[in-house]
Amino acid sequence: MIDPPPPPPRLVELSWVVGVGTVLWLVAGAVLLVAHLHFGRPLDAWFGACGAGVLLGAFGYGLSRWQKRAARRGSRGAQPGLS
Q1: 22: which residues sit within 8 A by CB, 6+ positions away?
Q2: Within 13 A of 23's CA, how many CA atoms are on the CB side?
Q3: What is the mean pLDDT of residues 78-83?
Q4: Higher local confidence (pLDDT), 61 or 72
Q5: φ, ψ for residue 24 (rounded to 5)?
């Protein structure tokens, strides 16, 4: 059986996308926190969404790095084509 070709690098290396998205959520949360502290804007669902975005982004970044390390090590359960 012939193995399929590896996916293109731009589809494999997604940790930079997750990192940029996490930083954007962090910046948005910081802006909302400054608006709360200086202008009295209530911390509402928008601030909670920013917090969830940061947490999920950090989790996703860690998961993608872990999967890439597993692929480089040659772990049996790792996603192929990431090394």
Answers
A1: 53, 54, 57, 58, 60, 61
A2: 6
A3: 63
A4: 61
A5: -65, -40
The answer to whether the beta carbons of residues 58 and 22 sit under 8 Å apart is yes
The 8-class DSSP code of residue 81 comes to T
Backbone angles phi, psi at 62, to 5 degrees: -65, -40
The number of angstroms, rounded, from the C-alpha of 62 to the middle of its chain's C-alpha atoms is 8
CA pair distance 23, 65, nearest whole angstrom: 17
Q: Is 77 strand, coil or helix?
A: coil
Of 28-32, 46-50, 71-75, 76-80, minimum mean pLDDT range: 76-80
The model's pTM is 0.74
pLDDT at 23 over 70: yes
How many residues does this entry show for the chain?
83
Check: CB of residue 23 under 8 Å from CB of residue 17: no
